[in-house]
Amino acid sequence: MFANNQIDVSSLPKVEHLEMHPIHRNYLYVLFINIFLVYGSIILGLVIIRTFSDDQSFNQFALYAVCALTVISLFTSILYYLGFKKRKYAMREKDITYSHGYLVTKTITLPHNRIQHLEIARSFLARKLGLSTLKIYSAGESGGDIAIKGLPKDVAETQYAFLTKVINERL
Q1: Which of 7-11, 14-18, 44-48 ranks highest by mean pLDDT?
Q2: Backbone angles phi, psi at 57, to 5 degrees
Q3: What are the CA-CA distances from residue 104 to residues 14, 36, 86, 99, 107 (Å)?
Q4: In what residue span(s) does the YdbS-like PH domain sit (predicted)?
Q5: Fold of 87-170
Q6: Measured distance CA(55)–CA(129) in Å, rounded
Q7: Which of 87, 124, 137, 161 is positioned for an S-S bond with 23, CB 3.0–4.6 A?
Q8: Interhelix angle for 26-52 vs 56-84, to 10°?
Q9: How would DSSP label each residue in 128-139?
């Protein structure tokens, strides 16, 4: 017969008590370099065009745009720095948990039996700093995919091997 008994919520394990591992500090450099490259190239382009332009209205616009982009890049850097401290992960025998966010923290826990596919990605800059991204794709379209960016290469490969073993044992 079907039963759907109520669970005592206070007896459930708490995510806050989970030992979360921080992302490697070098990933913060990746974030800052990316901000610098994106905003810096736009600012540099505006400054170069402004230098050779005779149009006063464009020169005025370019000046305001450069100031605005500088402020936005500083604000973005501060947000990334504050959010970096919230990037943490934990691996347990039955699931993996990843927490991240800037102003709002998002925590995703993905049971191993829902993992469909694994991938390790390394951008040029991440390779130079010895970092990798472990991408974990889940079953369904619920948005439960996890991409843990900023893992040291050996840690990402170890976790990849562990999760691959778990998935293969399931089959």
Answers
A1: 44-48
A2: -65, -40
A3: 19, 24, 10, 10, 10
A4: 87-158
A5: PH-domain like (2.30.29)
A6: 44
A7: 87
A8: 180
A9: HTTEEEEEEEES
> CA 121 to CA 132: how far, in whole Å?
6
Read off the DSSP letter of residue 9. G
Backbone angles phi and psi of 23, in degrees to 5: -75, 150
Place of tokens 């504050």: 82
Q: What's the pLDDT tens digit per position in 25-69? A: 999 999 999 999 999 999 999 999 999 989 999 999 999 999 999
List the chain domain ranges: 26-83, 87-170
Instruction: Output the pTM of the full model.
Output: 0.82
Task: Please list the residues that pair with 138 across neighbouring strands.
Answer: 115
Mean pLDDT for 107-128 is 92
